[in-house]
Amino acid sequence: MIADIMKRETRAQWSTRLDALGVPNGPLNTVPEVMALEQVAALAMFSRPFADAPTLFHGLPISFDGERAGDDSRSPRIGEHDGVA
After folding, report:
1. Contacts of 17 (CB under 8 A, 6+ apart)
2. Contacts with 14 (C-beta within 8 Å, 6 or more apart), sequence order
3. Contacts for 71-75: CB closer than 8 Å, 24+ residues apart
4. Cβ contacts of residue 24 below 8 Å, gap of 6+?
5. What local confidence, expressed as pLDDT, does residue 63 receive?
6. Hey, where are the domains in the chain?
7. Exposed (0-12), middle (13-18) or buried (19+): which is 43, by Cβ within 10 Å?
8. Among 20-24, 56-60, 66-70, 72-76, which is the least confidently predicted range?
9. pLDDT-based confidence at residue 10 (cuts at 50, 70, 90)
10. What pLDDT, on a 0 to 100 scale, did the predictor assign at position 23?
11. Which residue in 72, 16, 23, 18 sits closest to 44, CA to CA?
């Protein structure tokens, strides 16, 4: 029922109408739309932590003393170890 009503206008039109009424709102973005957002790039939210990483990884959106939280090292591959028995 609500989906049918929402399909009658574009996302931009609904946003304009809701803004005019003082109703907080925001878009529900697709993955490609999220990846294209300026703040996603500025915060380095998705990155390829090592050159041959098969996929992008989601980063933490916080920093401590100007440093991004998290560890960007890769996990060992099958059969690979760090020399610890």
Report:
1. 9
2. 6, 25
3. 72/47, 73/49, 74/49, 74/50
4. 18
5. 79
6. 1-27, 37-70
7. middle
8. 72-76
9. very high
10. 97
11. 72
